[in-house]
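Course assignment 3, question 2. Fill in each field.
Student: A.L.
Task: Predict the tertiary structure for the chain below.
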Amino acid sequence: MTRALNVSPVDIPLSVLELSPVVSGMTSGQALHNTLDLAKHAERLGYRRFWLAEHHNMPGIAAAVPEILIGQVAAVTKTLRVGSGGVMLPNHAPLHVAETFKTLEALYPGRIDLGIGRAPGTDGLTALALRRSREALHADDFDAQLSELFAFGSGDFPAHHPFQAVQAVPTDVPLPPVYLLGSSDYSARLAGQLGLGFAFAYHFSPHALLPALRAYREGFVPGDVEKPHAIVTVSVFCAPTDDDAHFLAGPMQLTFLKLRSGEPIQLPSPEEARDYPYTPDERAALEAIRAMQIVGSPDTVRSRLGELIAKTQADELMVTTMMYAHSDRLRSFELVAGALRGVPA
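Answer field:
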């Protein structure tokens, strides 16, 4: 037995990354209300954080504006930390982000996280619609945007800076804790240099995981946090048996396949995913998608997550799960929590 299989949930907190999936035949309103229900369920199960993603122009994802959902989730929970996973900073003015999250922090002090990413969270045309100019679309100024966000957060612009007289309201509330999100070593290195927490997207970029975590830890300088805090986000599908779990994971795998081919869809039913006429190339792509996910019974999931913990020495696991039936998704999060606590299914 590896050391990882003995790791307790006290050592490895569990958190949730939520995308508000829209399944075939469901309205976006239903999907968003399911998100609120999942948040309350996660809080009862002892999950630490509940982060909302930012995606645009995707019919199968209702989470486009995480800041609105953060306020809604925080209002129906009491202890859960709620945050963005993340706000895609190049899509927004740093002043707007600062004021939005200061407001959330004022309403729910000590419970808000600000996760920041630098990807668009969408296709190029939609990113252009968000940023309003091709110059902004192709600008390589993430570091400058981040510095501006922190300056608005603290009210501490350098002397003679053009924004020195601009205050982010509310002025008497700090920015919540900031985490950088990434799928390569760029954000990992930057998070280390700035002394921030770092969340890695293993659920769609598994091969860059270890180099990014190594770069983050080796380059870490104490800042907002005293020591590195690495969150690994992983796609998990858990059911009473391995066969059940693979059946329930099918819709997300087909949806991801379609997204990669430029044909985003709503989440189909497990039967539709099973009966889809995959081409040989699609089947090969499907195997690569499956390799990025952890799918199985509680015993299988516990073993696979244990291996991931041992390999990465993660400080926290963030689970994302997209299933057709809301009840199956609730059950999956319950089984994952129980598996790492040694609770029988």
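Instructor remarks: Strands lie at 14-18, 49-52, 81-84, 87-88, 112-117, 178-182, 197-201, 230-238, 293-296, 316-320. Residues 1-10 have pLDDT under 50 and may be disordered.
Grade: pending
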